[in-house]
Design a protein that fits this description.
Layout lengths: L1 H25 L24 E4 L6 H13 L4 E8 L5 E5 L7 E7 L8 H18 L3 E7 L1 H12 L1 H6 L1 E8 L13 H7 L4 H11 L7 E9 L10 H5 L10 E9 L10 H11 L2
Parallel strand pairs: 1-4, 1-5, 2-4, 5-6, 6-7, 7-8
Antiparallel strand pairs: 2-3
Keywords: Membrane, Transmembrane, Transmembrane helix
Protein name: Alpha/beta hydrolase
Pfam family, one: DUF915
Amino acid sequence: MKKIGKRIGQILIGIIVIALVVQMILLVPSPQKTLRQGQLRNDIHYQNVPTLLINGFGGSNYTYNKMINYYQKENIAQKTMTIHVTPTGSVHVSGSVKGKKNTLIQLLFDWNLTQTYNSQTNWTIKVIKILHNKYGVNELNVVGHSWGGTEFLHALGQSKWIQQNVKFNKVILMGTPVNEGVTNKVTYPQALREHLTDAEYRKLKREYQDLTPCSSIKLYNVMADYRDNTDTSVPNVQSEFLATILNPKWSSCKTVMFYGIKHSALHQDPKVLMKVARMLYD
């Protein structure tokens, strides 16, 4: 019996060690490559506004590795900063964005498997404040995939300080659930009529009732329809509810739909990546 217990203990320790190694690998940031100044593209606008990349539930370096590598290979953008947030909320920054064009900031939450996105929302607020106060970032573009986009929406809605001090030029939400109280069994008009919502959406709606950003925001609501009006992870109708929280006084929003691809392809598929590049750097 003791041998069996010892063997089980060894197996459990082995599993834990493997899990920790895998987690460490998934947190290795994407490599940085500077823009090739002699090969700047005529179809890309090079600008001083950095882009913050926020991943969703369970997201890791995998989420944006393909995008970062593709943009650096095609000389569209350059990753120049990595931000790690520990499970206790400590923020560690490496790199810089000052004086650099089309910079990408890779945000990595060291533990991103929580049941809600409340911690990530608070950490996103903290990260944006640090970027402003310590790195002089007054303007940002944001790309948020899945819950990463939801976290940003809540961060913006909850922080008056961010609304007043940081200008968001382009916000690209990819497969982002805004109202998880609906499924792909109902249409957007039907969900509106029947008032199908969840608590987080109602909270978000309240946050945006008196939202006062310091400048107008151009948003892109990017979705994928693999089949049955869903990307297999997020029903399109959940993302369509973005329209209900925005105010045309300070926002414009364009919906972009991709057909025949799944949720993860929104940050992997070359045609999506090129479309997102056009949104960011037109």
